[in-house]
Amino acid sequence: MTAALQRIHAMLLRYFYVLRGSPARVIEIIYWPTIQMVLWGFISQFFAHQNTTPLTIALGTLLGAVLLWDFLFRSQLGVSLSFLEEIWARNLGHLFVSPLRPYEWWISMMLYSVIRALTGMLPAAFLAIPFYGFSIFGLGWPVLFLFFNLMFMGWWLGLLITAMLIKAGPGAESLAWALTFLLAPICAVYYPVAMLPVWLQGVANALPASHVFEGLRTLVHEGRADTYHILASFGLNCLYMIFSISILQLSFNSARKAGTLLQSGE
To answer: Where are the alpha helices (DSSP H) in the chain?
Structure first.
């Protein structure tokens, strides 16, 4: 019995030392409960102030936000996972002895992310019609601009995460799932930007997604397209895309010179 306890204690120490030696693992343990608490705290505050909002409008706002947010997440994940799959398969060396150019690879990952995002979103969107009587397609042509801006944001987020993966290696792969959710409370997905603390509202307005979801609420509540939020989202996306491509190219060139691309793998 004593020997068994010693072995249990030894294994417990091993896992503790692994955790202690990896700040990323500690942050990840704290990360998800904190994000959930912050996100649902703001949602609760929002609904506490919505006594006069008809239930059907509130439901439409929530369902629309869920579908649009999932589209953003899957657009980003489609880019990030495409790169991660090459790392896991140790295929980067094979890719770059071919005539494939980096920008051709980035474009292919972005196009693939569209397929992934639509495959995940469309069934859910169609099921919402018989289940809840809500059709995202019934909001009219402006919803296409909202989807496009979220897809655009998913692209540059995915490219930015790819740059981090090139720099940090597979150890940073949790970023592929965590980074977008880190932005969720600030993007005001389920509540207006005005519900955020004043010091956070400026940060929210600097993110394209917050303008998309503000535009969605205008579309559901008032039945009109908010041109300001659509254009603001597109303009911010263009700026961040330029930034992400620059960071990605720098990371790629640095890794290629150092030879670390060939060392990436499970």
So the answer is: 2-20, 23-48, 55-88, 92-95, 102-132, 142-168, 175-183, 198-205, 208-222, 227-258
Cα–Cα–Cα angle for 112, 137, 240, nearest 5°? Answer: 45
d(CA 57, CA 59): 5
d(CA 76, CA 180): 8
Q: CA quadruple 162, 163, 165, 169: dihedral positive or negative? A: positive
Q: Which tokens in the block code for residue 90?
A: 């140790």
Cα distances from 191 to residues 135, 149, 154, 201, 215, in angstroms, run 20, 19, 20, 12, 12
Kindly give, in sequence order, each residue whose CB lies less than 8 Å from that of residue 174, ignoring residues fewer than 6 positions away. 24, 28
pLDDT for 222-252, tens place per residue? 878 889 999 999 999 999 999 999 999 998 8
- Dihedral sign of CA atoms 185, 110, 102, 231 in order: negative
* Sequence spans of domains, the chain: 41-263
Task: Please give the C-alpha separations between residue 259 and each of 93, 102, 161, 173, in angstroms, as whole numbers.
Answer: 10, 16, 20, 20
pLDDT in tens, 104-154: 888 888 888 888 888 877 888 888 788 777 788 888 888 899 999 999 999
